[in-house]
Amino acid sequence: MMRYAIAVVLLCIAAALAFSMRKNKNNPSSIYAKSLLRVRSVQILPVISLVYAFFAVVVVFFGLLIVDSSSQFAKHLKENEMRISMAAERLSMFRYLKTGKTKDMGHPLIMVRGREEVRKEHPKVLVVGDSFVWGDGCTNINQIWWSILQSELERRGYDCKVYAAGLGGASTYDEFLWLRDTTLIEDIEPDLMIIGYVTNDLDLGNLNHEQGVPPYVQEAYSQWIEANKKSYHREKSLVRELLPALSTFTRYKRLSRNGTNSIYEDAEMRMAGGEYLKYYNACVLEPLGKFIGQIGIPTIVIPTPESPHGQDFAALYRNVLPLFEQAGLPVHNPLGKFIERYPKPDRKFDKYFMAFPTDYHPGPATSWFLGEYAADVLEQEYASMLGKKGERDKAKFTIEINDWFPFMLEPKAIQESGSIAQYAIEYPDQTLEADIKNWTNLNFLSYPLGKNYVKLNFKYPVKLSSIQIEGEYLRSAKVYTLGLNLDLGFDDQKPVSLGYRRGTSCTWKDISERYVTSLLISAKTKDGRQAPLTITIESDGGEEAFY
Fold it and tell me: How far is CA 503 from CA 68, 274, 286, 476, 509, in A?
C-alpha cells in the first residue's frame, strides 16, 4: 500500500539524517552548520532548523497514520456496506427460495420466516417505500418501523397482518409502478395501503431519461445526482490515499450540518419546488391518485423522517405533502409529535436516531416512534379496516426466531413453544475473509462487539432463563443479548455479555429479567470451519412477551 511505502521511505530518510547529524555534530563546516540564506551576519533558514522541521513532519505523519489505521470510523464504513449487502442477500434469497415464484420478482415484497406465504384472510395492510422500509443499516427486521406497526397492532388486539414492499433508492414513481404494473396488489390483496414518503422520493428515476422530458427537469435531476456523488463519493487524492479514514471522516463533517448532509439537502430543496415539482405532480402524484381511486383501496401517506432534528423536514414537506392531498391521498405527518416526543435540548436520544454510526437511516428511537404513530393513525382513523379488536391470545405466543444474520445460518426449527425453542444452524467458516465487492463470505457482523458474531432475532422480545449451544465441532462460545430499555421505550442496542464457555456443550443462564430481542453468538469451531450447532432457548415467562 502506498501510504506504508511512503512511511518506510520517510523513516529511512529520517534515520539517515539522524545518523549524519550525530556524526557531524562537532563539525563546524558540515552542512548542518550552514544556512540556505544569509543576510550579512544574519542566518536565514538554517539547515539544522529545516532538518528538525522534517523530523516534526515525520512524527506528525506517523501519528496520523496510527490514528487512521486504528480508526473505528473506517471500520464502521466497511461494516455498514457489508450489512447492506447481507440484507440484500437475505431478502432477495427469501423471495426466490421461499415463494417459488418468478412472475412477481418485479416488486420487492419483503419476506421473513413465517411470512413465506401471504395469508388469504383479511384484514391486511401493505406498506410501500424505499430504504426506510427496506431497512438500510438495520440487522433486525423486527425493528423496522412497519414491523413494529405489526407488533403494535397485535399488542392492541387486532388480528391484522402488515406486509411491506421496499427497496433502497426507490422513489414514489417506482412505488407507483410496483402497484400498477406488477402483481403486488394481486398477491397481497390489501385492505389498506400506506406509502412511506421520504424527502428524496422526488427522484423520478428512469422517467428522467425518457424522451420528451423537459430540460429543466433533466437539469434539476442532474444537479441532484451530482449532489449525491459529492456527498457520498470522493475523487482520488493524495490525502485520501495516505489517510483514507481521516479523509472520509473530515469530509463527512464538512458536508454535514446538524447531522444531515447540506449539499444533498440543498439539492432536495431545489427539487421540492418550482417546475420540477409541477412535473413530479403531473407525472407521478396525479396518476397515482387516479389509479388508487380506480382500484378503491384506501391509501394514506406517512412521511418518514429519520430524526426530528437536523434536516429541515418541515421545509422539504411544505410544498410536496399538499400535492398528495390534492391527489386524493390523505397525509398523516408525524413530524410535530416526533419533535414533541424527542425535544432537541434532551440529547440522550441523539445516538438512537441512526441505524449505524455511519448510516443516517432510522435507528431504534425513530423506528419505534413511527411504528407506534402509524398504529395510532390506523386505530383512530381506519379502525373498521383492522378487523374486530379483542384481547391478545397469550396462549398463542411462542419463542420464535424469524430473522438472522448472515443468511446462510437459516435456522431450522426443531421445536417452538412459549417456554422452549430449539434450532439447528450452520455456524459459518471463520477462516474466510469477507469480500463485499463480490458478495462472498458475508458471514459475520462485528459491531458493536469488536469481534465476529452471528445474530438471531426474536419475533417477539422475550424473557430468557437459559441458552444452550451444542455441537460436535464446537470448541468455545461467548453469548451476548440485546434487549428493550423500558426507560427509553425501545431496544438500546447495548450488548450484555452472558459469559464465555468452552467445550462441545455450553450453557448460559440469564437472570436479567429484561426482554431480549436478539442473541449475538461468537463461537470457535474445530479448525475454524463451518459446523452444525443446536441452540436451545428456554424462558420462564414466555407468555409475558413485551408486545
Answer: 38, 67, 64, 6, 16
Q: Is the pLDDT of residue 326 over 80?
A: yes
Q: Which pLDDT score is estimated for 436?
A: 82
Instruction: Spell out the residues 6+ positions from residue 52 whose beta carbon is closer than 8 angstroms to its own.
Output: none
Q: Considering only CA atoms, which of 308, 403, 289 is closest in space to residue 350?
A: 308
**DSSP β-ladder status, 192-195 and 124-129:** parallel
Dump pLDDT digits (tens) for 330-378: 999 999 999 999 988 777 788 899 999 888 899 999 999 999 999 999 9
Contact 534, 521 (CB under 8 A): no
Give the whole-number percent of the chain exceeding pLDDT 70: 82
CA distance 443 to 178: 32
Task: Specify the residue for cell string 465476529.
Answer: 452
pLDDT greater at residue 99 or residue 135: 135
CA angle 413, 414, 419 (to 5 degrees): 90
DSSP letters along 349-396, please? GGGGSEEETTEEEE-HHHHHHHHHHHHHHHHHH-GGGS--B----GGG
The percent of residues above 90 in pLDDT, for the chain, comes to: 45
Q: Which is the CATH superfamily of the domain at 104-207+277-385?
A: SGNH hydrolase (3.40.50.1110)
Q: Grid coordinates standing for 324?
A: 398528495
Report d(CA 395, CA 414) in Å as an integer.
Answer: 20
The answer to whether residue 167 scores a pLDDT higher than 90 is no
Right CATH for 394-544 from 2.60.120.260, 3.30.70.260, 1.10.530.10, 2.40.30.170 = 2.60.120.260
Closest CA to 464 of 542, 543, 539: 539
- As beta bridge partners, residue 292 has none
Identify the residue whose cell numbers are 420462564: 540
SS3 171: coil
> Is omega for the bond preceding 244 within 30 degrees of 0, making it cis?
no
3-state SS, 262-314, equals: HHHHHHHHHHCCHHHHHHHHHHHHHHHHHHHHHHCCCEEECCCCCCCCCCCHH
User: Hey, which residues does 420 pair with through a beta bridge?
Assistant: 538
Whole-structure pTM value:
0.84
Number of other residues whose CB lies within 10 A of the CB of residue 450: 10
- Residue 95 near residue 134, CB atoms below 8 Å: no
